[in-house]
Amino acid sequence: MNVQLKTNDLEAFWMPFTANRQFKAAPRLFSKAEGLYYFTPDGRRVIDGTSGLWCVNAGHCRPRIVAAIKEQAETLDFAGTFQMGHVKAFEAASRLVNVAPEGFNHVFFTNSGSESVETALKMALAYHRAKGNASKVRLIGRERGYHGVNFGGMSVGGMVNNRKWFGALVAGVDHLRHTHDLSRNAFSKGEPEHGAELADDLERLVALHDASTIAAVIVEPVACSTGVLIPPKGYLKRLEAICRKHDILLIADEVITAFGRLGTAFGSDYFGIKPDIITTAKGVTNGTIPMGAVFASDKVFAAFQTGPDWAIDFFHGYTYSGHPIAAAAAIGTLDTYVEEGLLTRVSGLASYWEERLHALREMPYVIDIRNIGLIGAIEFEPLPDLPTKRAYDRFVRAFEKGLLVRTTGDIMALSPPLIISKSQIDDLFDILTDVLKTTP
Ligand SMILES: Cc1ncc(COP(=O)(O)O)c(C=O)c1O
Description:
Elements: H1 20-25, E1 32-34, E2 37-39, E3 45-48, H2 51-54, H3 63-75, H4 87-99, E4 104-110, H5 113-130, E5 138-142, H6 151-156, H7 160-163, E6 173-176, H8 182-185, H9 201-209, E7 214-219, H10 235-245, E8 249-253, H11 267-271, E9 277-280, E10 292-297, H12 298-303, H13 324-339, H14 342-345, H15 350-358, E11 366-372, E12 375-380, H16 389-400, E13 403-404, E14 406-408, E15 411-414, H17 422-438
Parallel strand pairs: 3-13, 5-6, 5-7, 7-8, 8-9
Antiparallel strand pairs: 1-2, 2-3, 4-10, 9-10, 11-12, 12-15, 14-15
Helix pairs in contact: 3-13, 4-13, 15-17
């Protein structure tokens, strides 16, 4: 028999990516949210400095999105999309391709960033097979990359704690070196000057494995979950050129950088690259209903359309691919983004954000500050023998003082909703300055 728990007991929920015992001894809970703010059960207001988990780009509980979800739940709760369809999924896909980079006219729906990554990796493998290049089976990721928690994403990912517990992972995967180099690039504003040549690491892997065995390279345009690693100037274009040269597909994992985070609709627009596949999730529904969207370029989609028309063209999909309520949420979200100009709003805010962020440079233990679009990161000198504690202590103190930040290792990441005003940016940094000054 199960232990009988009170309904408000914290014990039953095994929380993800959490120190469960520590959390439950001193929980941090929200019960409400509106716009830029969360509210705790005792009514305390907390600035959402992280857009939830990098997903609530338009701010919380936005009326258009709420109304779309409510209406859809009352009209058509579920309909599958295997050999059947429903109108909202088609409408959402058409609306999404309208904001996607040129040449991306097809969307495959998933339920999360992790599933978008698995979908993209499978799409890349199947693409080469469909083109008659069945020996192209290797997948290349990058050290310190984060591509979710399923087996493909974990394997191409490069964060040791996310990998070491889980066996030998997917075979045939290799990694580019990461681009983080504080010795040359500390306190860079925007894209760092040094390191474009690190893209040539792909040539090293081609020399090792041969291009005839490599299907795809997957990278985040900005590697956010690992601690905001911003690509050096020219790096992504150079990587793209090497991919083209060797007929290797480039997958841009834009789960965070899509939908306005950098001041352009997609990160690929910002960096001027043309990947073959783009993965998204999070901001596609403003975090309200789980949904991911994988954008296939015309070239990739066309490769799947050469068999008989009665044959299934991609043996892949999820029960909830294009779920009606998620599709409605995506449409309500796009309406909000477009009406409020949120896909480009950050371009007018980024320099103010940068200025306030870099003013923290002289705070104790700060060894780097970096920023791009409406993303910021502060890296702290780790405490001897206690890695992660310095950042964690500042995260807890910030929460107590009314600001939600996110930490990974000894790095603090900031990514507020794109609706934030200049005076709210001031509020955020006033709290943070106080926290950094006073936390031992
Ligand atoms: C670049 C990237 N890919 C994939 C994922 C995984 O997304 P999810 O947690 O929705 O599975 C994330 C999540 O942060 C991400 O940042």
